[in-house]
Amino acid sequence: MAHYPLLTKHSSFYLARERIGEDEEFIFQGQNSPPLRNINTAQLLNEQRERRGENVAVVSEWQNSSTLQYESLIHSVRDIARSLLGLGVRHGDRIVVLAGNSIEYVQLFLAIGSIGAIFAIINSSFTVEEVEVAVDFLGHGKLIMWPVGSAQSYGDLLTWTSFRLSGLNVKENLIDRYWGQVDPNDALCIQFTSGTTGPRRASMLAHRNLLNNADLLGHRLNMSSEDVLCCSLPLSHCFGLVCGVLATITHGGTVIIPSDVFNPNASLRAISEHQCTVIHAVPTIFQALMDFAAAQSYTKRLKLRTGIIAGSSLSETLLRRLQAELGLDGLAYAFGNKEFP
């Protein structure tokens, strides 16, 4: 077997090339430490409640600064799981969600996974035709909720208020029967690829897959329960949901949601007022933050130390500006692989 080293002074990843008969395959291998964890979403929430129940888990600035500690987060997630069960949702059912960033989006994602259902994400940037294709592909037995958090009626779609009322008659023992019983190798999420290399494809991602991805990413950035992450990226993308929200939760930190869609003023205000230490973004978002007219009034009070930049090429000029204006000396550059065949 031949080994081909990849990357970096901080890691020891390599491609292993092996010939089996007439076939040849490449295996991506990396470090064995820290070890992978074999847990599901509900088990992660239970764990963080025991360890960090009083720590702030999520703050949604645009929703009147709605705040959930880890203790109240798990209670709210169980209540939403009750509503899902009241609607007849069970293990393996696909729940289709089309929404902007909100505290309910986080709760719904965690609740769906905690009872073994599958969170199927529709990106808000999809065209009507793409939404129709995605929904048709996902099949029957699904619930579409859009937009999460709204009291407005959208025809046959459930409002958030109506959805929550569906759990009133669900008993606690039914929640306990499903809560945390899912195999970590079962699907947690279905996401559609961006389509940059061809038609959009559905990627099925497991609890073990996403939680370890989030945990190891946070480990690479030296994240801890003291970190505060500004989530300016859409939660309908892995970059925001997994690298942002899940990575922060696995390390017991705090997620700040500045706005339902990216807004440079809201993001800069949140970064400054909450003394955020971590931010992930694509180059265009970082550029927009630094070019915002009132940026200088915020950047004097920043405590940013690290984050991830990805999505397109990074110029040396932008990197130098990030270091000089936002204090981001510890940025990591990440590559997604949902587009792989």
Automatic annotation (TrEMBL):
<feature type="domain" description="AMP-dependent synthetase/ligase">
    <location>
        <begin position="47"/>
        <end position="327"/>
    </location>
</feature>
<protein>
    <submittedName>
        <fullName>Amp dependent CoA ligase</fullName>
    </submittedName>
</protein>
<dbReference type="GO" id="GO:0031956">
    <property type="term" value="F:medium-chain fatty acid-CoA ligase activity"/>
</dbReference>
<dbReference type="InterPro" id="IPR000873">
    <property type="entry name" value="AMP-dep_synth/lig_dom"/>
</dbReference>
<dbReference type="InterPro" id="IPR042099">
    <property type="entry name" value="ANL_N_sf"/>
</dbReference>
<dbReference type="GO" id="GO:0006631">
    <property type="term" value="P:fatty acid metabolic process"/>
</dbReference>
<keyword id="KW-0436">Ligase</keyword>
<dbReference type="Pfam" id="PF00501">
    <property type="entry name" value="AMP-binding"/>
</dbReference>
